[in-house]
Amino acid sequence: MKSVKLVIIAFFVPTLFCLAQNNKPANSSAVKSVDLPTVLADSYIIGPSDVLTVTVWKEPSLSGNLLVRPDGMISISLLGDVQASGISPLQLADQIAIKLKKYIQDPKVSVVLTQINSKKVFLLGEVQRRGPVEMTSGMTVLQAIASAGGLTDFASTKKIYILRDEAGNHQKIPVRYKEALKGNSDLDLMLKPGDTIVVP
Fold it and tell me: Across the chain, which distance is largest between two alpha carbons, in Å?
């Protein structure tokens, strides 16, 4: 009788083990392995100094890494200058494909962001870490200063200002830091790409 029970157990244990394996959640690395450039292809707006990888299927001479110039253009063989700034990678891929139809039958084009350099703000003066800070969506002055490690003990909070260059117009925007810090969201100014926060 015991031998029969042992045989039954020996038969069912591997089966149960297999079921348990099948019911395990998907590999956590597989869940996390979201292709960031693919996500950004729909929403990200290309800017000057970004680096793009343009791939034209079966056309290595038309493919490669391209820097978006300060004028917003990239240069591609056969096409010359193509406007890249101000549109998404997906839109740029479509534009390149349309232009290439003059030279190639049914071109397959993909554009991937290799480096994001256009969405940065800069901090100067009495902050813990001076220099560029990656800009997040909706970033404010307080968030940028926090990203730079906060102010030093010598910072003059009453004299903080933002330098902004828009369409050739240079602006110096005063920051009411202490009032913003107290929770007045209207004074926690929203930043724009390329802004420089100066902390005397």
Answer: 93
Residue 138 has φ and ψ, to the nearest 5°, of 75, 20
Where does the chain hold its CATH 3.10.560.10 domain(s)? 120-199
- Copy the structure tokens of residue 103: 């030279």
pLDDT in tens, 135-145: 877 889 999 99
Query: What is the structure's pLDDT at 41?
Result: 53
Fold (CATH) for 120-199: Outer membrane lipoprotein wza fold like (3.10.560)
How many angstroms separate the CA atoms of 85 and 164, rounded? 19
Amino acid letter for position 67:
L
52's tokens? 């793009």
Token pair for 12: 């069912």
Which residues make up the CATH 3.30.1950.10 domain(s) of the chain?
Answer: 36-115
Superfamily of domain 36-115 in CATH is: wza like domain (3.30.1950.10)
% of the chain with per-residue pLDDT over 70:
78
pTM: predicted TM-score of the whole model, two decimal places: 0.53
Helix boundaries (H) for the chain: 2-22, 28-32, 36-43, 89-100, 141-147, 177-181
Residue 103, pLDDT above cutoff 70: yes
